Amino acid sequence: MTGAERLLRLHQPVVARFVANTQTGDIIDVITAPGQVEGFYRDGEGRFTAAPRVFTRVDYLVKIAGEGSPGRFARLLNHAQMLTRDYFDGHPQGNDSFAPLRQVGSNPVTGRAYSWMTSDIPYRPGGDFIAIPRQEGGAPGGNHFYTLRRLAQ
Hints:
2 domains; two-stranded antiparallel sheet; 4 helices; alpha+beta
């Protein structure tokens, strides 16, 4: 089984929330919602899967992470793997520093970081994603983090 296949087998219920006009208690529904994560979808039988290029890319990253002495990239992949494993085991380490965030400008928000993009490109995720301000720590290391607009109940 490849590294990508192992990742795709992970499945854990999450707290229900609205994302991309989808109400769900399942993180896989969020990932496969239209316009959310390019290359990930449910097959004809409803199983979580990905486009072949995703498997190829993950396998490549796992391969280079295992070559030579552990460098910065290998440490990054190892850290991401640990975070993923801990999340799906139900005991993520550390605190989400954006969890207490409830307001960005005039927008009520859910808190937490749900998305990120490099700051170098002009595109933004749009929809109900709200950029976490730089002064709140939302733009570290050339990236920008996003929380979600809190929807009226």
